[in-house]
Amino acid sequence: MNVLGVDIGGSGIKGALVDPQRGQLISERHRIPTPESLMPEEVLAAVLELAGEFDDFDGPIGIGFPAVVVDGTPRTPFTAHHIKEWVGFPVAHYLRERLDRPVTMLNDADAAGIAEMRFGRGRGEQGVVIILTLGTGIGSAVFTGGHLVPNTEFGKLRLPGHKERGELYAAGDVRKRDNLDWETYTARLDEYLRYLDTLFSPRLFIIGGGISKDHERFVPLLTVETRVEPAGLRNQAGIIGAAIAAAEGWNN
After folding, report:
1. 45-95 pLDDT, tens digit each
2. Strands 103-107, 73-74: pairing kind
3. Domain limits of the chain?
4. Where are the alpha helices (DSSP H) in the chain?
5. Superfamily of domain 3-110+237-247
6. Cross-strand pairs, 149
7. Which of 143, 144, 199, 127 lies closest to 166, judged by CA?
8. Structure confidence by residue, pLDDT tens digits, 172-227
9. Was domain 125-231 assigned CATH 3.40.190.10?
10. Matching CATH topology for 3-110+237-247 and 125-231?
11. Distance of alpha carbon 203 from alpha carbon 181, whole angstroms
């Protein structure tokens, strides 16, 4: 059974048909800019537009969303933003009614983590693994013994001596926002990883999100003792993981 995987981000909404058994895209990936307002009705209208790009497909949909998600409903605002209208909005139910098909929604970093653990760099890892998606904010997924601990929000952690959240200090978009060279940005990311390393003692960090395509520019510069690997599925992990979750009836 093929599934439409959708990854909702702060700058773009991406989707593709996925074979969840093989963890592979089987269609062209489509992308629609995320509406600047980030309000629920406008963003979900864009999701419906994206689904319309796959007019020959009427199967289930899996959605990764940048917030804590319980039973298809966000419990926190859109990550890295303060759009409180999302909190309690029944997103999965809303889309299910309009598309007349099954819709599964989960945290976007959890979705990326599921894909990476199944088909990417985390495959076969049995200890604690932390997947971080570095984009508009920092998404996090934690696995122990191959099992997901859902809805961790490590981007909200404040590093010792810092007033701002970690995602405002070391997210991928911060490099562009603050016009940082790679060495300066990597020092920030290194500090953030070292703090997570102290708190959770993982065996592996996996770095995903849009910045993962530039991994050769920053991963070799990191000094944190724990092994750091770029996401094997790169920026497709969220789409693939959302599709896997939908195919398997994932819920939390």
Report:
1. 999 999 999 988 999 999 999 999 999 999 998 876 778 999 999 999 999
2. unpaired
3. 3-110+237-247, 125-231
4. 40-52, 91-99, 108-119, 167-170, 172-177, 182-200, 215-218, 237-247
5. ATPase, nucleotide binding domain (3.30.420.40)
6. 142
7. 199
8. 999 999 999 999 999 999 999 999 999 999 999 999 988 999 999 999 999 999 99
9. no
10. yes
11. 28
